[in-house]
Amino acid sequence: MKKLMLTLVMVLLLSSIAAAQETFTPQGSLVVPGVSANYVSNTNRTITKFLLTNVSGNAVQVKVTVYDRNGNDVSKYCNVYEGSSNKNSWSLVAQGTGTFDLAAHGTRVVNFGYNITNANVIGHAVIEWASSDKLQRKALMGSLRFFSAYNTGDHSYGQQFLNSGQAF
């Protein structure tokens, strides 16, 4: 009887621990090669931006994980922003992570590398999303932007559609 009670207690304890852990089960994902960021000085740097739009009628949770050249997670260099009514600023949604909630038809920008100092990172990203609607199959569309600023005051931009401009 003691063994049965001990076993029951252990099962309940382990079940509650497992339930308490946060789970993220993606319903869609996309691998994005060619992510880079470098820092030479405050006026000489390159960053990568992911502009992501939820094209579905449901809110989704989005997770952008960036990996460096050795496969290490460097998502701590991500900041998530939304637009603001101030023409000179963005509203910070999440700092040091690429995980955020995105309302139906909402758009956010994930900046990778703006908070890097004295480093040069190249790698890839994995963009994942999940919805409370488990039958949903596509939710996101987006583009990848590269931004460089130089000591001369010049700037350069580049942009490409993610997934050939198709929802994923």
Structural commentary:
This protein has 168 residues and is mainly beta. It has a single domain (26-165), classed as Sandwich (Hypothetical Protein Tm1070, Chain: A), CATH 2.60.290.11. Helix content is 11%, strand content 49%. The protein has one helix spanning 2-20, and strands at 28-41, 44-54, 60-68, 78-82, 91-95, 99-102, 107-112, 120-131, 140-149, 155-161. Strands 1, 2, 3, 4, 5, 6, 7, 8, 9 and 10 form a 10-stranded antiparallel beta sheet that branches. The radius of gyration is 20 Å and the shape is globular. It starts with a helix and ends in a 7-residue tail after the last strand. 22% of the residues are buried. Residues 4-21 have low confidence and may be disordered.
CATH superfamily caption: TM1070-like
CATH architecture: Sandwich
Fraction of helical residues: 10-25%
What does the average pLDDT come to? Answer: 87
DSSP, total strands? 10
How is the main sheet built? Answer: 10 strands, antiparallel
CATH level 1 class label: Mainly Beta
Number of domains: 1
Fill in the CATH topology.
Hypothetical Protein Tm1070, Chain: A
Uncertain runs:
4-21
Q: What structural class results from the helix and strand content?
A: mainly beta
> Beta-strand percentage?
over 45%
- How many helices? The count is 1
In whole angstroms, the N-to-C terminal distance is: 54 Å
